[in-house]
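HOLO CASE FILE
Compound: zinc ion
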Amino acid sequence: MYLYNSLSHKKELFTPNNPDLVKMYTCGPTVYHYAHIGNLRTYIMEDVLEKSLRYVGYNVKRVMNITDVGHLASDADTGEDKMLKGAKRENKTVMDIARFYTEAFKADCDKLNIKWPDVVEPATNCIDEYIHMVQTLLDNGKAYFVGGNVYFDTATLEKYYVFNDHDEEDLATGVRDGVEEDTNKKNKNDFVLWFTKSKFEDQALKWDSPWGVGYPGWHIECSCISMKHLGEDLDIHCGGIDNAFPHHTNEIAQSESYLGHKWCNYWFHVMHLNDESGKMSKSKGDFLTVSLLEKKGYDPMAYRFFCLQSHYRKNLVFSWENLDNAVQAYDKLIAKIAALKNQGEVEQDAFDQLKAKFLNAINGDLNTSVAVTALYDVLKAKCNDATKLALIADFDYVLSLNLIAAADALNKKQAEEEAANADPEIDALVAARTEAKKAKNWAEADRIRDELKARGIEIIDTPQGAKWRRV
Ligand code: AMP
Ligand code: ZN
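Model generated. C-alpha cells follow.
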C-alpha cells in the first residue's frame, strides 16, 4: 500500500517494522464538547486507513487517547484548559464533562461505523508515565525547570520543524497570532511538559510530582500513551492537519529525545472539513454535530458517503447542498443494490477483475473516491448478481456504508408497504382484465379499468405483468 507520509512529503510504500503487526496511533478527541463533523471527517478517514490495512492482510493494533486534561485553549501552551472551560460552561465537574462527552463521541463513532480502537486511554490514567518521561528528559539535559514549569528545550534538537520546509518565522507567527509569549521559555518553540504554574490557578485536576503539584502538557500524553501500549517503535501516527504543528512536531521532539532513536515512520494527516465561511468551529453557537444532522433528517451514513467521495488530502467544503447531493447519490446506490437478486454462483474471474480496481484505489494512498467509482463499476458490470453482491459486501468492509444491510432494509420496507396495501378483490379484478385482454375482449378490459379507476386504482402494465397502485 502506498501512503503519503508527511515526514518525507511523498507517497511511500508502507512497510511496517514488524509485518505481523501494524502499530497505529491516532490522536483522540478533547472531550470538552461534542465532536463537530469536521473532527469526525478525520476519524472516518482514520477508520478507513485501519480497515484498509486489515483488508490488505495486516493485523493492526490501534491506540487512541482521550484528552481529558492539559489541552489549553491555544495549542501554543497558553489560555485556559479546555476541559475546565467545558465544566464551567455546564456547571459540572471536569470528570463529569469528560465522561459525558467521551460517551457522546463513542455514540457518534457508532453511528458513522467508525470502529472503536483496540485501546482507548484517557490522559488522566497515565500520570506516572508522564512524570517518568519528563524526569528522563530533565536528566538527559533535554528539558529545564523554570518559573514552576518544566519545558522541553528545542535548542537540543538538530531539526525541529520536521513536517515542513516553511520559514520558521512564518510558522511561528501563524500559530502564535495574538498569543502572549511565555517569558520563561529559553527558545520561542519550547513547550511545557509539566505545569505547576499557569495564569489559570483554578486548574481542576492536579497531581503530585517531583516539581510540585501540577498537571501535564497536552503533547506529552500522546507520546506516553503510545509507548505504553505500542512500545518504542510506532509504524503510523494519525491526526487532522492542524495537529501536525505544534502537537505532532512536539511529540516527535520529546519522544525521540527520550528514546534516543527514531520513533514513528509514517505520519498520516487528514485535511480539514470547512464550512462555507472557511472554518469549522465549536465556538460558533449551533455547530455541526452528528445529532444535528440527524435532527434535520440526515442518515449519518450519507455523511460518511460524502466524506468518502473526496480524497483525505484535499480540503472539503461542507454545505447543505453538497450533503443533499450525497444523500441522493447514496439513496440511488442503495436502491440499485436492493434490485440485485442473490442468485447463482460467484463468477471468480469477474470478481477478481472488479476487485482489482478497488484494491488499486485503496493501495494508491487511500483514494476513496476512486474506490466508490469501483463500486459503480460493479453495478454496471456484465457478471451475475451473486458476484455483484459478493463484491459489494467485500468493498464495504473498508467503506462501511451499510450497503447490504441498507438494501435489505429497503426491500423489507417495500415488501411491508406492498403487504399493507394488498387487496385480493383488486388483484382478482386486475387478473380478470388481463384474461379479458388475452381473449381480445377489449370492452370488458376497458370496463374493468374504468371500474378500478373510479375506485382510485391505477393499473400499470409492466413486462412482468399488470400491477396496480392507489392514486
Ligand atoms: P480535538 O478534539 O480538537 O483535539 O480534535 C480532534 C481531531 O479532529 C484532531 O485529529 C484534529 O486534528 C481534527 N480536526 C479538528 N478540526 C478539524 C476539521 N475542521 N476538519 C477535520 N479534522 C479536524
Ligand atoms: Zn495527540
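CASE NOTES: The first strand starts at residue 2 and ends at 5. Confidence is low (pLDDT under 50) at residues 169-179.
CLOSED: yes
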